[in-house]
Amino acid sequence: MRPFRRVSDSRIFSPLQRVGASGIVAVALAGGLWLPTAHAAPVPTPVGPPVNKMQTQSETTASAQARRTGAKVEVAGEGSETSKVMANPDGTFTMSTYTAPVRVKRGSAWVPIETSLKPTADGLLAPAASAEDVKFSNGGSSPLATVSTHGKTVSFSWPTPLPVPQVSGATAVYPSVLPGVDLQLTAQADDYSEVLVVHDATAAANPALKAIKITTATTGLTLSADHNGLSARDGSGAEVLHGSTPIMWDSTAAPNVGPPPSATSPGSGHVTALSVTQTPSTSELTIAPDPAALTGPGVIYPLYIDPQMSGRTQHWLVVSSSGPRESIFDDSTFPQQVGYCGDIVSHCNNIGTARSYFQIDTSPLQQRAGYTATIHSAYFYATEIHQYSRCTDEPVNLYEAGPIHSGIAFPGPTGAFISQASSHAGDTCGGAAPVQFAANQLAADAANGNWINITVALLAPNESDGAQWKTFAPTDAHLDVTYNFPPNTPTGLHVSHEVSCNGGLPTTSDTTPTLYSSATDNNDSPLPLGLQFQLWNKDATKQLAANPNLIGIANDTEGGWTVPKSLADDQYAFRATTINMPADGADWLTSNWSDWYSFIARTGPFDETPTAFSFDYPEGYWGSAQGTPGTFQLQANVPPGTANPPHFAGITYTFDGAGTEAIPSTGDCNLNKTFGNDGGWIATTSGNATLTVPSGLSPGYHTLNLRTFDDAHRLSPESPTYAFYVAPNVGVTKTKLEAELNTDVTPSQPAGQNIPMTTQQGGELYSNGWQLFFPGNADQQKFDLTFTTPLEADYALGAEMTKSTDYGRVTVTLDGKTPLAGTDKTPFDGHWQSLSRAYLPLNGAHLTKGTHTLTFTLNGTNSTTGNRYQVGIDYLTVAPLNNVIADNFTDAMNNHGIAAAGSPVNLDFNGAGLVSSTLSNAGLAPGQSTTIGGATFTMPAPNTNGNDNVVAVGQTIPFPANQQVKASAVGLLAVSTCGNTPATPGTITYQDTGHTHSNPQFPTVTDWIGSSADGAAFVLDQWSGGDHPAKPKVFAIFAPTDPGKTLESITLPNIGTSFRSTICDNALHVLAIGVRPVQAGWLGAWAAPIDHTIPAPADSDANRTMRIIAHPTVTGANARVRLSNTGVPTPSTLDHVTIARQAGTGAATSAAPAQLTFCAAAGKPAGCGLRSITIPAGGEVYSDPVALPSGTGDLAISYHSPNALNWLPVHAGSSTPTYSAAGDVSGNVDGAPFVSAMNTTAFVTGVDISTTDNSQGTIVVLGDQTSAAGSTGGTWVDKVPGKVGSALPGSIVNDSKVGLPPIARWKLDDGSGTTAKDSVGTNPGTVTGGVTWSSDHGGSAVFNGRDSRITTAGPVLDTTGSYSISAWVYAKSASNYMTAVGAGGQQSASAYLQYNKVFNAWTFISPSTDVLDPSDYPAVHASSPPTLNKWTHLLAVFDATSGTMKLYIDGALVGTTTNPTPWKATSKLSIGAVTPGQTAADDFFNGSISDVRVYQQALTSTDAGVLAHGDAPTGPVGGVGAPSARTAGATLNQTVTDEPNLRTVVVSLGANDILAGDSAATVEASLTKLIKATSADGLKQINRVDGTAVHVIVTTIAPLGLSPNDPREQQRQLLNSDIRQSAGSYGEDGFIDFDQAVRDGGNVNQVASQYLTSGSPNDSYYNALVQALLDAMNAFPPQADL
After folding, report:
1. Which UniProt keywords are present, listed alphabetically (predicted)?
2. How many angstroms separate the CA atoms of 69 and 83, rounded?
3. CATH class of 736-879
């Protein structure tokens, strides 16, 4: 109870208090925590051992924080209103319990007690924060006080209405409730006090004070009163609230007896007991003070009447030998008194001799698990508040005592003496202070007696000596005990990573295992524990090791000790004991030893890596169908006779990739377990097992990885990854056909061969235990295996073959015609040193339903002994991969390769594909058509399976009705994935009697991503599924057909695609099929094939007209014009095209131009009048026939472009002019609007003239710049009709190309001045710094390496497109970076052609971004330092279509790399330095530079050679970008085969090959590839209209003006000699000797002087070439039959 703040005359009644409050007991225990349990009984009752408690998580957390911070931390959840548990930094815990509450819970937090009174919502008063729910009246008739606890209440009411109280802090004073009497209520921590203050004797004489009435009311409680006080009990009889016997005291002051009396303590006042009676019928309490004590003589006012009440579980008692203080029990306001009160004056208020008793909780000392606590120290403390002798030390004795209660009187239950302490303290000597008593015996008695509590007594040593009189505080006494219990015997012994399955001994894989045990302490606040381990041999006869230091653990936790040395593979035993360790250094206590624990250590090597094999799933190939699971044989491969075979327990396997095997934990004993489709375990003690593949495994690619594990669950190294493919289930469940079973496969051999085919038994070597054996004995022997396919589909074929010493090489063909898996070129080699098996993937093929045959043909042998030609076959794989049929192209589509960007696609079987929007932009959306090389391709819509292209695997597809025509070729619009598809034959079947067929070769198609754009029909902007910077390319390839027969079906080439993902499975994807119809009645009259595509110049903006002059070589009734968009990535629209005869030599026409229409090209009926045409990207169109304009002059073909053009497909170096005009002047006659002329053409690539003579045909000249060039009289081809006349069997067209002009060229031969002239463009260079001029190398600029450079006004190259930079350099030093040519950006340059100091070599660099410090520098460089003081040719090439950078030095390729992030140069192009837009020029060149050229195309290796080797001083110049014998075959569809009714091809090539440095043999090989029918590109494959092969005539190479000592000249002469003597060895039908016609007889390396004007060929030169043609035609026998 809190003390009163005001003095009153009497204290009548105090409130009931909660039962459960107790005095302080502080127990300090090392390493543990004891939580008190309230016990109602006040007697020392032995109790059984409580359950051991382990340290809680809250204790662990608090302890860790205390150690970390060095400060005490409260343990969450283990405190109460009267107690708290603190974790100490040293690992111990301190529990403090107080007499009264010191805090209260508000929400989740503790707040301090705050007893100040506050108004409540119901108009009463209540303390702000107290442990008791108590409310006071705020005046009026409401109850004076109400106490509530757990829904039960007791209320007390004053008999009359109360005045409004005066509230101060925790006190409410109700004034004058009786005359001269105030009623005071004070809130305390867990109760309240009620005091009547009687101010004087007059007030005390009031009759109302003789019997004070208090009305009570209860809810859920029953109130009773007797001589022991008040008691409130619940329905079970348990006491909830309690009050001791009331007392009253006056204000007598006796300093030697005690402190002055007050409202909170009697002190030295006279004390009188009060009686309390209860009237049950009226619920009324009557308190009757002793009249003498109230108003008698000697009463010193104020007078206090106090019915002290409390609820305690630990108690205290004061007994005295005389007077009213005979027994005071549990009164917190009454001091504990000890000794004889010798105050003679006041007679000590008749106290006499007093003794004090305290009951202390000792439950934490009760026995644990049979162990008695060991006491290390114990002290009892009592707070002395007064003594008679003031500051003189006086003794007091501590005794054990018996139980106490309210009925005990003097002398009390005193027992054995414990100890004595002397002290002086209290109000007369400096204030209260604790007195310490040694109490070891006391604590030991409690522990030995197993008592729940113990009572002690304080007595004066001499109870007759008043000097020893003392008083003590009743609530501050406490007992501190340091103690512990011996720990329990360790339990839970085990070993690290132990596996204990199937009743065997535990087994561990640790070479230095950790031994574990658990331990518990018997202390209620458990002490830290230490574990001692001993390791012994398996018989426990020899100790092997023990831990030198204890392993410290907390109570009820586990500790381990790691054996310090590696254990051999053997059995062992260990045991453990536990020791507890008090923090204060007290004696350690030890448990008994545990039982022995035996285990096995598996420490020997375990490296038996398993392997997998399957007959059902050949490695890396297609196997059983989904839902028809096959098996794998798993084997650990333990060598026979192994001394200590592994103790296998199982195999773990995974289908999710290497390293994902499920690892059995030490507790896993069920080792036959599957984890869905992911993997599983198979139990095996032998290391061998059979694995059945989950039926739910999806079709397609999977991997299998394995590890064995032993009985310690040690894992072996992982097996190599076994890749396999689950075939789709399309209703065919049997995909493995046993070769030895006639029910699966029928063997046969050619008649007369008579080799006895047998079956051979081979046990586990073969899938069914047997194989089919062919004992061949000679090369080219063969046999067939016939099988039946249940449905039409694309199949994966394969064979499990046997290999041995006498086995030969084998070629495999399908159905007698299709070689499989390249075995025709590289036969399967069956030779091996020992009998073994090998799987032969035969790859994909489209098979119809029915019987098919595999033919195995012996093709040599590697063996040198035995029969050498034996063959063994175990089984065939015949696995359908879909249920695709080939009734038409749409049905045959078997691949999904086109989708929107970001959508799933699988063109390459690995998630990459074409983007539908880019195809649509190119005019290749479903339903759109494009014409290429005379064949029209229509893009199909996806079929019902979502497929959009046909992977060519030998499908036979009927032509649709509109393609069942006579044609000269069949075309495939295709892409090749995963590399270049090889030239492969297909089959064309015709509708004639017998359905004859031809087997033309389909040419190679280069990779859709990694190749250059040479020969590509379309270059698209984007692709899905990859980050390579290259652009995807679509090709049109053609195979010749018999033009005299009607097409029926096409059998696509079988590339051997097996539809496998994750590998690089080369495939030819056919997007559409087109045919080139026979063009009866037409002859080619003029041609201008596209050389290249250029960015549109400024004058090609919208609304312009171009007029092209064409020189036809034949005349007829009608004409048609071919328009081409070759190489342009987007469609181009021309809205007005006309044709007329040229008038004179300018742009005027002889008559009004005729309008051309395009009805047929647009799929509209004839005569529709459509004059506007949009040419698809990369495509071509023909105009409708129109009457050939009358007259004999050249033709003028005009077209109007209504829209701005980004790109132009051009033919350069035309011998006739092209005129340009603004607006649509296509119908203009006088030519006046056409103010500019050029020698390039665009879009118009051919003019055809009709003929009625079907015996005539088109003669095509396939040449280079030497044939494309001419004089004022035209080219030599232009002169042929006039010279040959009627001997010309039709027409002749010139499909030669002059090549690629640079977009800028600085020869640097200016000699003087500050400008470097651009000889071909409009980008002159400005000379800056110390540049000087030199005549060296035909003219050059000399740079000083400090500040000299030549710069253009702005950018010249678009460095995001393809480009090439050529320069001759002469370096004087290599000490710094030196840039020969730089395409500047703002901070850096997009392209550097330079000497790079880091690489110490010539380098081509393109930084990743235009910043000062780019993150990446894509670069290609030479492998050696530059040669100084020597002219060197450098060529840098970037191919935007493939993303590749190349560097050539002196014509030789020195390196290639990829540039993923090209960016556009935005600043000046510099020669001799680099000049960014926002930073200073840098990397100055030290030396000379000559002849700098830049191209907006990617040049070839031939071009590199031409540029590096240079032109001759006289004669024809080299053709950069012009055809060569090496390259011409790539564009035949844009030249030779694009001409109608092809009859003869004159091949006039080789000059550029020679100029590039090729040998004669190399050129001859190129010519052979170009011409021979055995080549897929061979001109001799092409047929004339009558079905015979076209004629091919070659020409010798005219002198190129090279020096006679130039190796190239020697190779030219050698090549010409070989051509003259070839006699058709290249496949040609004749030759024309241009060399002999124009060479100088005395200097055969030179052109005769009469044929040159200013060093260039003149008109006589070209006339001489025509004469050479005539001479060859007229020779006998003819050298050239056209």
Report:
1. Disulfide bond, Lectin, Signal
2. 23
3. mainly beta
